[in-house]
Amino acid sequence: MTIQTEQEYLAAYRPEHYPRPLFSVDVAIFTLHDGVLKILLVQRAEHPFVNHWALPGGYVDLSADADIAATARRKLLAKTGVNAPLLEQVETVGNATRDPRGWSVTTLYMALIPYAPTTEFMESVVDARWWALDELENLALAFDHRELVELARARLKNKTAYTVLPLHVLQQPFSLSQLQQAFELLLGSELEKKSFRRRILNADLLQEVGIGIPAGGKGRPAALYVPAPGSEQHLFVRVFGESGVE
Amino acid sequence: MTIQTEQEYLAAYRPEHYPRPLFSVDVAIFTLHDGVLKILLVQRAEHPFVNHWALPGGYVDLSADADIAATARRKLLAKTGVNAPLLEQVETVGNATRDPRGWSVTTLYMALIPYAPTTEFMESVVDARWWALDELENLALAFDHRELVELARARLKNKTAYTVLPLHVLQQPFSLSQLQQAFELLLGSELEKKSFRRRILNADLLQEVGIGIPAGGKGRPAALYVPAPGSEQHLFVRVFGESGVE
DNA sequence: TCAATAGTGTCTGTCAGACACTATGTT
DNA sequence: AACATAGTGTCTGACAGACACTATTGA
What we know:
Chain A is α+β, with helices and mostly antiparallel strands and 246 residues long. Chain A has helices spanning 6-12, 68-80, 116-123, 145-160, 176-187, 193-202; strands spanning 22-33, 36-43, 53-54, 57-59, 86-95, 104-112, 128-132, 174-175, 206-212, 222-227.
């Protein structure tokens, strides 16, 4: 072969000549409901793993998706109707055995959404439903999705210890108690009330928007808050709970 | 089409029928030398971006690599001769524009190795060399590798604030001053001596193995250490330096 | 008045920052 | 002795944990 310019090389390039892995994007969508952490799974209609429950996900649409985050957003929108949630890349898993069709790579994203806005929409999506994480124990998930769920769950827990991730699972406005409950559920352990309030309030992350009793609540009305602009990327220099980040 | 079993489906499956992105693995290999942080780049021999400097990386060998970490390890071994270093997945970047050949995805790994053991080996690798990170400013890197380098650099910095990552760039045994210098170079800022020593020693991460003057050193001989078993995954509950983790 | 929830006062312990100090080697 | 580097003593401030306490609502 003679020396080529890059243009000549590209003109002659035939991607299909090179064997390469399957590539997909999967999304672990979490929410809080009835006091438990839930994840959205879809029931597969096709081989492989027909009828098994799986994370929403699929292949990149080469003509429609600008990047892999767009693929993840598209999958999320299709299943939940939610458009601009917290969406974050977790990890990429690729090996020869995870998909019976051959060498396969998936990039796992995790999304957090408040429960209610999606509920009505969800009714019509017959092949999708929320599962409490505990319910998954006896459920056979497709592919290696059980491990993917665990990866996302672990990330969620870790980041809850030093960020304000849990803000994203709440409907606004919310009380500090509701926020604390969200932290506790994502963290999987209880927090001391005073410490929690001190930490959040001192960090100047919230805007008070009034006082009220959140739907169905009892007792003294609480101050209600919305996140202050830019607060979502706040990082604490000290970690919540004893220790044990990833 | 009639209803199939999964076996029939798999037998009839032709992966090449589905358009999908290119997939590669790239590795940002860091070390410390002459008091600066360096990264290993290779000069491309082929299109696209011939002669440009790039991160070591390439395609998955579907028959030889068990998973994507194996691909990363293989690339690292080929360029440095180092076998079992710290190797950690950083992030996956995929979009329509990063590779002129089309939609392309790469999973970025980062590796840390001590300088010396690789030096002799490196002499013979004519297409690879260490670059101080500052030198990269005026260098045109292939693809989006400049951004990938920045991603890896940022991860390195963040994790240095709450782990003992810098252990992996030192030859053993090392003094606390050397360890502190490693932390400072990866962190990009200076640390207070007493705080540093207290933090490291109280965490019980090191085994003292004697006293000596590290090669070429002056002044009072220092206690020398090696990492205690399992110390590598230690996590501090409080972050180093003012704040500013990712 | 009681149950239920919101919110506070305050002590303690841990640990990073600052910085002045002492210790031990070489030339 | 002068230097260079290793290593310490000790005060301070930030902040999480613990826990008892007070406040405000509805039934």
